[in-house]
Design brief:
The chain is an all-alpha fold. The chain is 82% helix and 0% strand. It is built from 7 helices and no strands. The relative contact order is 0.13.
Length: 240
């Protein structure tokens, strides 16, 4: 009788623990995707304002904005992720800034004959890819943690390659190449799909200690995927 009661109690405690863990995960997911939605709104506001002040966002200012973004996303947000209020301000300031940063690309795309259609297609493709990959990551039993090394190595290769390409074209170190631009954008698009899959699984497995960081990582994958598809479609529809 004692052993049977003990096992029964142990089973109840285990079930309670599982329920508690599941509730915590659902709460974390809800907070993450709410912050992701808020980040999208902040970025939309940034892009809307950026289109009205586009003349101030080109040239050297693009590099200033990029530097501020790196400081916020890589240092400030992680440092204040557990500080209530300040963490949200840092997150939304970062995503608002990305809206300003993408404004020149949006303006260039919208100036094309079929620019509005291209922008709409890029956003639709990004949303479908993000939703499909996220759903797969949330439901599959396959573990994709093995992708970590490849994803981060690829990120640094493409990041450095993109910086060199942008600096070279900006300061006329070498001529612009639409083929290389297309190759670079395609690589980034594929990489971001991998990050959406990996980061979503990291959230499920408890790899994040703050929904602010989880939301930022998901948002940046969405943002970079959208920017890459926007450039790919722009190149393919360009007469150059």
């Amino acid at each position: 009788m004692y052993n049977r009661d003990y096992l029964s109690q142990e089973t109840k405690e285990h079930a309670y623990s599982n329920d508690e863990s599941r509730a915590h995960l659902m709460s974390f997911l809800k907070a993450t995707y709410q912050l992701f939605a808020g980040s999208m709104l902040a970025a939309t506001a940034g892009a809307y304002i950026g289109l009205d002040i586009i003349s101030y966002l080109v040239g050297g200012m693009q590099w200033v904005l990029f530097g501020v973004f790196i400081a916020l996303a890589w240092f400030v947000v992680p440092a204040v992720r557990h500080t209530s209020g300040l963490n949200l301000a840092a997150l939304f300031a970062t995503t608002f800034l990305t809206g300003l940063m993408i404004a020149p690309l949006l303006a260039m795309t919208l100036a094309m004959p079929s620019g509005a259609s291209i922008a709409g297609q890029a956003f639709f493709m990004t949303s479908v890819a993000f939703g499909g990959i996220s759903l797969f990551a949330l439901t599959t039993k396959k573990d994709f943690s093995f992708m970590r090394g490849f994803l981060f190595a690829s990120f640094w290769i493409l990041f450095i390659g993109g910086i060199i390409f942008a600096l070279g074209v900006t300061f006329n170190f070498f001529a612009y190449s639409s083929i290389f631009h297309l190759f670079l954008s395609s690589g980034i698009a594929l990489l971001m799909c991998g990050f959406i899959l990996y980061n979503t699984q990291m959230i499920i497995k408890g790899g994040y200690d703050s929904p602010v960081m989880a939301a930022l990582d998901l948002y940046m994958a969405f943002f970079n995927l959208f920017a890459s598809l926007l450039q790919i479609l722009g190149i393919l529809n360009s007469d150059d």
